[in-house]
UniProtKB/TrEMBL annotation:
Alphabetized Pfam families for the sequence: Sel1
Lineage of source species: Eukaryota, Fungi, Fungi incertae sedis, Mucoromycota, Glomeromycotina
PANTHER family in alphabetical order: ACTIVATOR OF C KINASE PROTEIN 1-RELATED, CHITIN SYNTHASE REGULATORY FACTOR 2-RELATED
Gene3D superfamilies: Tetratricopeptide repeat domain (1.25.40.10), Transferase(Phosphotransferase) domain 1 (1.10.510.10)
Protein name (database record): 15624_t:CDS:1
Length: 304
């Protein structure tokens, strides 16, 4: 039977980052995991979910839940949450308001199982990869006003993953998620407005969305906001601001920001020329595979 470690998915969905973001990715990390290193518990994680992903970390592989057992347990948790909400509960009724935090919290708790399973199908975690099934689970979460699901559905529609490509639906779902504050959806929607894809080109609208995404500390949002300032897209050219944003995103390990910052250092564009720093940044970006010719550029600059 296939057994899985679904806990990594919960943290990816909740935090949008690696579970070992503060750990070096080398042989020592692998050894430490084998010897008992585990991710830190995220404050606010529902107790039932803690129990689920703790089981998935059991040292004895045979004691870890199978995919079927995991899905059954997540469904049980979902049912438990739904059963705890009564129509006579004034808090529950208050939560029916679309602007209520209670609605958002309830939606999150009810939708995590759907996102879990969708992610498993999308990437083939413990089960055969099935993009169509992934789309269906994300869609269920999206219809419950869970912004992660809405953003994923927008992405699937835009790229034609598990569903026929449909730019109108992509825009609609990105807008829904953006209106509910999803910083990733704001980034993707901003790109559509910037390039006039599925919507009328509106660089000012794109800039606003990128700024909101950046405010949420989303590294891609910060990077593209820097791009807008550097190239005057939806705003006046401000290379000092562009430099500051690229630095901030680079510190978040964004490979595109590292590359763009390297270019500024190499050519002294908006900053004092520094070939050594440029080389360092090219190398950091190249290690992450961006872009394919970065290593070539790095080697060429190194000769100068």
């Amino acid at each position: 039977m296939i057994r899985v470690k679904i806990n990594v998915l919960y943290i990816f969905i909740r935090e949008s980052k690696s579970i070992y973001v503060d750990e070096p990715y080398d042989f020592d990390l692998i050894t430490n995991i084998v010897e008992g290193l585990r991710e830190k518990l995220i404050p606010g994680t529902p107790e039932d979910y803690v129990k689920v992903y703790t089981k998935c970390w059991d040292f004895e592989p045979d004691k870890r839940p199978t995919m079927k057992q995991l899905v059954d347990e997540l469904k049980r948790i979902k049912t438990k949450i739904e059963d705890s909400i009564t129509v006579d509960d004034p808090v529950g009724n208050y939560g029916s308001s679309p602007n209520s935090n209670n609605t958002i919290d309830s939606s999150i708790n009810n939708s995590f199982p759907l996102i879990y399973v969708g992610k498993c199908y999308e990437d083939g975690y413990g089960i055969n990869e099935d993009k169509t099934a992934a789309f269906e689970y994300y869609e269920k979460a999206a219809n419950k006003n869970f912004t992660v699901g809405q953003s994923k559905i927008g992405y699937f529609y835009y790229n034609g993953i598990g569903v026929v490509k449909d730019l109108k639906n992509a825009v609609d779902w990105y807008e829904k998620a953006s209106n509910l504050g999803n910083i990733i959806a704001k980034y993707y929607l901003g790109n559509l407005y910037l390039n006039g894809i599925g919507v009328k080109r509106d660089r000012h609208k794109a800039f606003e969305l990128f700024a909101e995404s950046a405010e949420g500390n989303y590294s891609n949002g910060i990077t593209i906001l820097g791009y807008c300032y550097k190239n005057g897209k939806g705003t006046s050219i401000n290379k000092k601001k562009a430099f500051e944003l690229y630095v901030k995103a680079s510190e978040l390990n964004n490979k595109v920001a590292q590359y763009n910052l390297a270019l500024m250092y190499e050519y002294g564009d908006g900053v004092k020329k520094d070939k050594i720093r440029a080389n360092e940044l090219y190398k950091e970006s190249a290690k992450q595979g961006y872009p394919k010719d970065v290593m070539f550029v790095f080697l060429e600059v190194s000769k100068i």
